[in-house]
Design goal:
about 240 residues; alpha/beta; Rossmann fold; transcription regulation; transcription
């Protein structure tokens, strides 16, 4: 299947209904997803998101110790992981609130399994492109299919969804300047105004993962006033 590389992604399912978690797990496993994790409340979901760095979260709105909208806002304090709300709250105002916060999709229960899978694949395809498989840099190798950095010292570091998007955009344009606007659009969509500071913060965190000396980068270079450039050794 064309999207088979997506099935290696780490998924976190947050819902307080044990039977629904079992159903979701079964549906996703039958589709080929294997890296699945679950949480039954807001506290567990937040802890799992911090520990696991999932690459997609299915998030219920009504949770026993809070609500999914609040959890989403807490997640956005440290990650840009794509989120799909999966909820029984079917009023237009609820959907508008969820999408207005920046969620990637909003699915109302009950749902058709095939619809759920189609929407999951659509979000994953948008966030994790297949065209760059791996890239060799001075101090590390980036495996885009696994969203993972393998450093020369033997350590392996996971990429967040935003880091993956930025690095894959740079890798597809390796050796060329990628403008600040282009990078912001790749992550935040068609209206990237105001995201430059966020971009700089993500670039700093990326350098901490891929550079031997982040303050003296040799792979992810700043082109003053224009953007950034990724210098690679070899791309498979």
């Amino acid at each position: 299947m064309k999207d088979s590389y997506l099935k290696e992604r780490r998924l976190l399912l947050v819902d307080d209904e044990p039977e629904l978690l079992k159903l979701l797990t079964s549906i996703l496993q039958d589709e080929g997803f294997r890296n699945l994790h679950t949480a039954s409340n807001m506290k567990q979901g937040l802890a799992q998101a911090k520990d696991l760095q999932p690459e997609l979260i299915l998030l219920d709105v009504m949770l026993p110790d809070g609500d999914g909208f609040t959890l989403f806002q807490l997640l956005r304090q440290f990650t840009e992981v794509p989120v799909i709300f999966l909820t029984a709250k079917d009023q237009p105002v609820d959907k508008l609130e969820g999408l207005g916060l920046g969620a990637d999709d909003y699915i109302v229960k009950p749902f058709l399994p095939q619809e759920l899978l189609l929407r999951i694949h659509a979000v994953l395809r948008r966030c994790y492109k297949e065209d760059v498989i791996s890239t060799q840099l001075d101090f590390c190798r980036i495996d885009f299919s696994r969203a993972e950095v393998s450093r020369a010292d033997g350590t392996q570091l996971a990429l967040t969804a935003t880091e993956h998007t930025l690095l894959s955009t740079l890798a597809r344009n390796a050796g060329r300047i990628v403008t600040i606007d282009t990078l912001c659009e790749a992550v935040w969509g068609d209206n990237p105004f105001g995201y430059e500071n966020s971009l700089m913060a993500h670039i700093r965190r990326i350098r901490e993962k891929i550079e031997e000396a982040p303050s003296r980068p040799t792979s992810l270079l700043t082109v003053k006033g224009l953007g950034y450039k990724l210098v690679i050794k070899r791309t498979d």
